[in-house]
Amino acid sequence: MKLRLSEEELCNHRDAVRKKLEEKGLDALCLFSPRDIFYLTGLYLIQTERPVGLLYDGTNTTAFVPTLEVEHVEKLGGVHEIISYEEYPGEKHPMEILAETIEDRSIAKLGVDSDGYPGAYGYEGPSLSEFLGDGNVEELPRMIEGIMQVKTDEEVELIKESCRWGNLAHRYLQDYTEPGKAENEISTMASLDASRSMLKTVGDDYYSPKGATTPATAGFRGQIGKGSAIPHALTTNETIDEGDVLVTGASAKVGGYVSELERTMIVGEPWKKQVQFFESMVKAGEVAMEAIEPGASFADVDRKVRAFYKKNDLMDYWRHHTGHSIGFAGHEAPYLDRGDDRKLEPGMVVTVEPGIYVPDFAGFRHSDTVLVTEGGSERLTYYPRDLESLVIPSR
Amino acid sequence: MKLRLSEEELCNHRDAVRKKLEEKGLDALCLFSPRDIFYLTGLYLIQTERPVGLLYDGTNTTAFVPTLEVEHVEKLGGVHEIISYEEYPGEKHPMEILAETIEDRSIAKLGVDSDGYPGAYGYEGPSLSEFLGDGNVEELPRMIEGIMQVKTDEEVELIKESCRWGNLAHRYLQDYTEPGKAENEISTMASLDASRSMLKTVGDDYYSPKGATTPATAGFRGQIGKGSAIPHALTTNETIDEGDVLVTGASAKVGGYVSELERTMIVGEPWKKQVQFFESMVKAGEVAMEAIEPGASFADVDRKVRAFYKKNDLMDYWRHHTGHSIGFAGHEAPYLDRGDDRKLEPGMVVTVEPGIYVPDFAGFRHSDTVLVTEGGSERLTYYPRDLESLVIPSR
Questions:
Q1: Does the predicted interface ipTM exceed a cut of 0.90?
Q2: N or C: which end of chain A has fewer CB within 10 A?
Q3: Is B283 exposed, middle or buried (0-12, 13-18, 19+ CB in 10 A)?
Q4: Which residues of chain A make contact with B214, given a CB cutoff of 8 A?
């Protein structure tokens, strides 16, 4: 299996978008989001201060890129045509050149994911509607995102392949973890060794549109020892100690898709209090898994998990909702949050990751990547979840 | 030296912003950009689907964060106060909670870097002016960016420290490069070894507000062999071959600041054609260095470099402008581009990186991080630039 979306699949994506254009009476669509452009073409255009975009008229795709990306896009393929501008800021603003291209093609009604390049790294520029007229540009920022929420079989296969190599990276991470070692050494070597194994195994079938030095990764996210109580801690140079609780994260980039695997590991014989919180966290995850089924709302799942926290006097240690969608980006909408009333559908992929954070003590969180199925849910990540499997031996 | 901005420096940053607020008759400023927030507080708040922001009234700073970031921000410090919302999307939208906070403080005239959280990962939300009224919110997207364009002595010191460790990472990269080796192995080991040395050398003085597993990095950016002709190539698994031209990149994250070091290396005895293009590229860089001085415009420098390309029949191999500003972000405005008429000032830091890209043959680019001084310019990156120093021996 080639680890990328097939030409047939990309055709289906474009067909789905063409239907939306027809429904809305639009002549063409102009996309600036790298995600949206990827979804139609399989091509990932890097966002810098130099604008990149894609025109799609229901038949042909035209990439809009700076000179320095022309040969790159030619080599990668995926679009019918390339239009380039010399440079940004340049003597003529790229948005003006893009607007002229649109006018030359007699596109009267244009849909856009944003009205002009949204920008990065200090980019400044006018909107497209400044050139084309307000009435001719319709902003549809969520159109592609809406289509992407339900994953296709091919997308699920790429996410599963990501889970496989994230699993290996995590296995190395656990194998290399021992008291006295520095976190960056452990995580870098685990990521390198997993990436090496992955690339040697799948060979030329491997593809990452975004590029990646070590496409399979595992690390600690700064959640080491007492720091594990802080969900988004950021550190670089912690040493693993006896008694530490560690919250990990692992993933792999495959064909533009990712997965999320997180585990709570304990260094040395776990203390009673550690065991109790660990087991409660695992149970909270089970509550979520049981609640996930087609037709339930994202909010329903989170409400059931919150009820579990309340019943077990854990709300003092609650810090975030149950999870989020995942696939192309590491976090996607909808969210397993009591404020998100969207409904679960077969083919959606979410993370299940309720956590328990005890200040000045430790944090406990597993995260699994979960597919919504006709019958309920299926964990795509398969790393052991039980405490015994996640204890790091003392030296 | 602590490798982070001092409290005095951050005070100066806030003073500069307070003056701008007074000039504009604003009661307070609300910032959403992590860069802008960092500039006032030294605190880096991660942008996810959960909004983060900062209120600054000319005296006090108030962080606006989700529950899961409260203890993190408390631990990091840097703000006078923290206001939190439970979760996103949540039962009440975070922007509504933020707007209420602003109203409670009787802030009549509010400046913002964007009118509401700009969003990431599927975030959706209203603007602040929907709650506060259009006339009460003034968008100032470039205010902090404008102040940051001229770097202070402390900022320059952090950029210099970044150059030092980027240099070491590049040294390891060159040492480890040999025909037959895989790029990811070379770059990962170079990055790990340089990061280890850096962290062991500077110890607890090291600080990276954004976090980093291997804070010093070096790699090939996909520009290997014929691929070196593509400025923004993205690969993961190339093998180094005899005769390859390699375009590298190295940097290190220090106290929130970065630098850029890029070199062209040649594997084995260089061919005549390789030598000619290499020497032309080095000369183009010299032309830029000579043109950089206070009072010259960014455009002037680029025009002189373009004139050099034209005079030497190199425009067929031209793909991008001369360089960009750098400091907090890897690319910043203004740009060394003939369309950018802003003026160079002492304390500005830019990259000088004219490149020569010969399709189906090879690409040639050095990049140096350069400080604009009273007298002209000073290269902060100091890795050798001559061909002899950049040849990888044959096996």
A1: yes
A2: C
A3: middle
A4: 184, 188
